[in-house]
Amino acid sequence: MAGFDKVVTSYEEAMDGLEDGMTIIAGGFGLCGIPENLIAEIKRRQTKQLTVVSNNCGSDGFGLGILLEDKQIQKMIASYVGENNLFEQQLLSGEIDVVLTPQGTLAEKIRAGGAGIPAFYTATGVGTPVAEGKETRVIDGREYLLEPAIKGDFAIVKGWKADRFGNVVYRHTAQNFNPLAATAGKITVVEVEEIVEVGELEPTQIHTPGIYVNRVIKGTFEKRIEKVAVRS
């Protein structure tokens, strides 16, 4: 049983092996379900020249946004960039390479990477700048783009509960990109709110089987609200 125990007790151990120039796939959507403490550990390590794949780049001063402060991200593959002023500045000044990707295509690229599918055809982006430099093919009279899959050296994921074998359950909207990201890393690290003993999770409720997970750590989370809208 001990050999299957994937729980680590420090964030330093959780991100052991991270090196400059690696590709990181990060779960989350906006500030919902983001692996905020794993991101903070990357910040602490000052790992540089990273390629980061995520729906967006966090916000100013939180989430993936903190990695921009010391220019740790060299390339960002994302579908949305509208909530981070520093990200916008670095994009416009050419300090960061940004690959804007349609959101559904980004999700499928990650899913394909986790499933061992090297590439797939999609109609999304045909006739737009997204298609520049990409192979196209006409299938049943419609033009499609060939999109390569994405795999990461690390996948960092936020879950709700996990057992010691790395089986993970996500809560509500935090499912977003997290289950996809969990499958696509050579090393997948999941931080959760609660670690339970093996057998406590209902098998039919598990979203990410432990076979995909290398390390699990229990964290404490701030869970910021991205935008507050109230009636006057």
TrEMBL record:
UniProt keyword terms in alphabetical order: Transferase
Gene3D superfamilies: Glutaconate Coenzyme A-transferase
GO molecular function: transferase activity
SUPFAM superfamilies in alphabetical order: NagB/RpiA/CoA transferase-like
PROSITE patterns, sorted: COA_TRANSF_1 (PS01273)
Listed SMART domains: CoA_trans
Entry keyword Cytoplasm: no
One Pfam short name: CoA_trans
InterPro entries, per the entry: 3-oxoacid_CoA-transf_A, CoA_trans_fam_I, CoA_transf_BS, NagB/RpiA_transferase-like
Coiled coil: none
PANTHER family hit by this protein: ACETATE COA-TRANSFERASE SUBUNIT ALPHA, KETOACID-COENZYME A TRANSFERASE
Family: Belongs to the 3-oxoacid CoA-transferase subunit A family.
Record-given protein name: CoA transferase subunit A
Organism from which the protein derives: Rhodanobacter aciditrophus
